[in-house]
């Protein structure tokens, strides 16, 4: 039996990096934490829109880097970018509604058994109670105490674990992949390890994680339909010390988040580091430089394996405290691997005030440096933690002030993505819209229709999490769009801390799943009566 076990250690859960540390070590960050150098400010219009640029993929010059839309006016933005494509009342939107049926419970859950419907219904209902989600780990420990570890594990395996996790053996993982595949849905297998805080032997932990990722890629070669694009998904914090990332973040932000600056903290030095030639960074100690060099080579090893298998290597976005460092490392990987094909994709979180600005800068730089740019656009999972850290440490939260602002930011990044896709006809600009939000999904589909982008062109992907919003995923798969689920693998002990963290961060999402719960119960009732 091909059994994979991922030793993740026990990590801090709610607030994984205590910014008190950062505050003490780098007081500078408190004043500039939130001052994007390139001026994407609250009126969302101060990025220079009128620069003349040459599209290095097509060789075509244009007078604007992104669509000339009324971003300077928030009121207009609400109707133009919209919290929904319906506002635009286009022919495309009518076609989208005809094509994507997010209302038909029977069709949406056709390949689920009655038991699975019942399980999903109960679990999503339980997850909508904050008291449960907030205390999930305490309840987990209590359950183990009352029922004993083995019995409690069996209960969890039959319920929460099976809802959100594919399994820990090749056989179980293969079954999940096959089931999704039969509905035209890809599986982005990944381990759940993140953040080494609390590990006694960090280097060993990172190496074990690298082995876990390599094993996931192996399993994808066995179980996934390799005639379609396969995507492997990783978190950089499973390979590299987050305190080191936090330290580099300060240097990067001091340099104005400029990836091509004259210091040694630039993407080219990181790219050299991938090949084992990192020039030591003066701001780091000798031990830190050694740790960074080892981490970059570790990351390179797994990225290379993914590319050798012709798989996309998708890097998640994590906490704000090191998001630019992660973006720079990802960018370095893009510079190495994204020439023949756009293999490496990063992630941008619309939730952060500075994301649109960063996305535009990175996208333009990739074009200038002449390599492919791929990214996953998410709203962002760490709202609660970022807000709590900001409050605790007395700085302004890096996150948007409201859900509506995050929606606007998401739509704006989406518009930028489509503009770049249009300007890169050879397909080197790729976006995955990772969201459960039906309006966002429909808006993407409407824009694809408007731009004449083929469903399977490989320029636009959709992403959802395993166990959530299946009615959206299955409908997209059925309609022929490229849709992938993020599918965790690992033993119950390994994945539960991450699942619990994820549930806490996704409280607002669980609270919005009323429709899915209703559809599940409708489907079940129809089958029984
Ligand atoms: C395939 C996939 C991969 C993902 N990868 C990542 C990743 O790498 N990094 C990451 O951070 N997340 C990731 N996520 C999670 C994602 O960022 C969201 O947390 C989740 O998808 C919910 O957003 P939504 O668009 O699906 O749903 P919605 O319900 O429309 O949006 C909920 C989101 O809106 C935002 N929000 C809610 N309330 C407020 C408020 N009061 N103020 C400001 N904003 C608010 C938050 O971002 C919240 O998560 C991923 C999700 C998917 C599906």
In short:
The chain is of the alpha/beta class.
Bound molecules: flavin-adenine dinucleotide
Query: Which residue ranges are poorly predicted, with pLDDT under 50 across at least 5 consecutive positions?
Result: 1-87
Nearest-angstrom radius of gyration?
22 Å
Oligomer: single chain
CATH class category label: Alpha Beta
- What class would the helix/strand composition place it in? alpha/beta
How can the largest sheet be summarized? 8 strands, parallel
Ends distance: 41 Å
The whole-number mean of residue pLDDT values reads 82
How many discrete structural domains? 1
How many beta-strand elements? Answer: 10
Shape: globular
Strand order of the largest sheet: 3-10-9-8-7-6-5-4
Question: Could you describe the 3D structure shown?
Answer:
- This protein has one domain: TIM Barrel, CATH 3.20.20.
- Helix 6 runs antiparallel to helix 23 and helix 12 packs across helix 15 (323-337).
- Helix 19 (438-451) links the parallel strand 8 and strand 9.
- The radius of gyration is 22 Å and the shape is globular.
- It has helices spanning 19-25, 28-32, 74-80, 91-99, 105-108, 114-127, 130-134, 136-147, 149-164, 170-182, 202-223, 242-254, 267-274, 286-308, 323-337, 355-368, 383-393, 403-423, 438-451, 470-478, 492-505, 507-511, 514-528, and strands at 53-54, 61-62, 185-190, 231-234, 312-315, 344-349, 373-378, 429-434, 460-465, 483-488.
- It is α/β, with parallel strands linked by helices.
- The strands form two sheets. It has an eight-stranded parallel sheet.
- Helix content is 52%, strand content 9%.
- Flavin-adenine dinucleotide binds at residues 316-317, 347, 349, 351, 378-383, 399-400, 402-403, 406, 434-437, 463-465, 486, 506, 508-509, 512.
- Flavin-adenine dinucleotide binds next to strand 6, helix 18, strand 9 and helix 22.
């Amino acid at each position: 039996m091909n059994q994979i076990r991922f030793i993740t250690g026990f990590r801090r859960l709610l607030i994984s990096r205590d910014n008190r540390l950062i505050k003490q070590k780098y007081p500078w960050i408190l004043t500039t934490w939130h001052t994007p150098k390139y001026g994407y400010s609250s009126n969302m219009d101060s990025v220079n829109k009128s620069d003349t640029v040459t599209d290095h993929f097509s060789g075509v010059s244009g007078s604007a880097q992104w669509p000339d839309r009324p971003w300077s006016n928030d009121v207009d933005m609400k109707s133009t970018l919209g919290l929904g494509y319906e506002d635009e009342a286009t022919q495309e939107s009518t076609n989208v509604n005809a094509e994507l049926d997010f209302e038909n419970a029977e069709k949406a859950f056709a390949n689920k058994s009655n038991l699975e419907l019942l399980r999903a219904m109960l679990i999503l209902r339980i997850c909508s109670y904050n008291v449960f989600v907030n205390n999930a780990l305490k309840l987990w420990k209590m359950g183990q105490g009352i029922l004993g570890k083995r019995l409690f594990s069996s209960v969890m395996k039959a319920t929460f674990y099976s809802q959100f996790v594919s399994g820990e053996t090749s056989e179980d993982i293969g079954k999940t992949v096959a089931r999704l595949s039969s509905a035209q849905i890809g599986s982005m297998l990944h381990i759940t390890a993140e953040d080494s805080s609390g590990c006694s032997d960090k280097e060993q932990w990172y190496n074990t994680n690298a082995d876990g990722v390599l094993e996931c890629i192996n399993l994808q070669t066995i179980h996934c339909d390799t005639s379609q694009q396969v995507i492997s998904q990783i978190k950089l914090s499973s390979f590299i010390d987050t305190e080191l990332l936090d330290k580099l973040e300060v240097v990067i932000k001091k340099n104005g988040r400029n990836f091509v600056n004259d210091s040694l903290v630039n993407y080219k030095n990181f790219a050299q580091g991938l090949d084992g030639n990192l020039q030591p960074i003066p701001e780091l100690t000798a031990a830190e430089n050694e740790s960074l060099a080892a981490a970059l080579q570790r990351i390179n090893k797994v990225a290379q394996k993914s590319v050798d298998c012709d798989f996309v290597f998708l890097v998640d976005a994590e906490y704000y405290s090191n998001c630019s460092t992660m973006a720079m490392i990802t960018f370095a990987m893009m510079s190495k691997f994204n020439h023949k094909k756009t293999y490496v994709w990063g992630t941008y979180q619309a939730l952060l005030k500075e994301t649109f600005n960063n996305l535009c800068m990175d996208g333009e730089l990739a074009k200038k440096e002449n390599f492919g740019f791929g990214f996953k656009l998410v709203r962002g999972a760490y709202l609660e933690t970022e807000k709590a850290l900001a409050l605790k440490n007395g700085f302004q939260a890096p996150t948007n002030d409201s859900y509506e602002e995050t929606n606007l930011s998401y739509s704006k990044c989406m518009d930028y993505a489509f503009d770049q896709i249009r300007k890169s006809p050879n397909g080197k600009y790729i976006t995955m819209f990772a969201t459960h939000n039906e309006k966002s999904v429909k808006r993407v589909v409407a824009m694809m229709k408007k731009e004449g982008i083929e469903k399977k062109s490989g320029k636009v992907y959709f992403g959802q999490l395993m166990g959530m919003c299946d009615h959206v995923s299955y409908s997209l798969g059925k309609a022929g769009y490229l849709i992938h689920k993020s599918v965790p693998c690992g033993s119950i002990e390994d994945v539960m801390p991450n699942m619990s963290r994820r549930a806490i961060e996704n409280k607002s999402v669980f609270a919005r799943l009323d429709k899915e719960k209703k559809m599940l119960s409708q489907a079940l009732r129809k089958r029984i009566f």
